[in-house]
Amino acid sequence: MKNPDEIKETASVENIIKEIHLEELKAEIERGKLDIKEGRFITHEEMLIELKNKGII
Predict the structure, then answer these.
(1) Where are the domains of the chain?
(2) Which superkingdom heads the taxonomic lineage of this protein's source (predicted)?
(3) How far apart are CA 44 and CA 51, in angstroms?
(4) Which of 4, 10, 16, 41 is the least buried, fewest Cβ under 10 Å from its Cβ?
(5) Distance CA 50, CA 57 (A)
(6) Four-residue CA torsion sign, 55, 25, 43, 35
């Protein structure tokens, strides 16, 4: 059984990892918004064609 200090340390590390992950997700969302605003995207249909041409689907 872990002692209380180990449990606190584990919880602290988990919280740090969650914070980092959340910040990464927020940054990706902002990049996505900018991509859309600047026209850097393709439609679903275009993506399906690309995937078919590459033999993925």
Answers:
(1) 4-53
(2) Bacteria
(3) 11
(4) 4
(5) 9
(6) negative
What CA–CA distance (Å, rounded) separates 48 from 22? Answer: 30
CA gap 20, 29 in Å, rounded:
14
Whether the CB-CB separation of 35 and 41 falls below 8 Å is answered with yes
Predicted TM-score (pTM) of the model is: 0.63
Cα–chain-centroid distance for residue 14?
17
Using only C-alpha atoms, the chain has a radius of gyration, in whole angstroms, of 20
- State how far the Cα of 51 lies from the Cα of 33, in Å rounded to an integer: 23
Over the stretch 20-32, which tens digit does the pLDDT of each residue have? Answer: 999 999 999 999 9
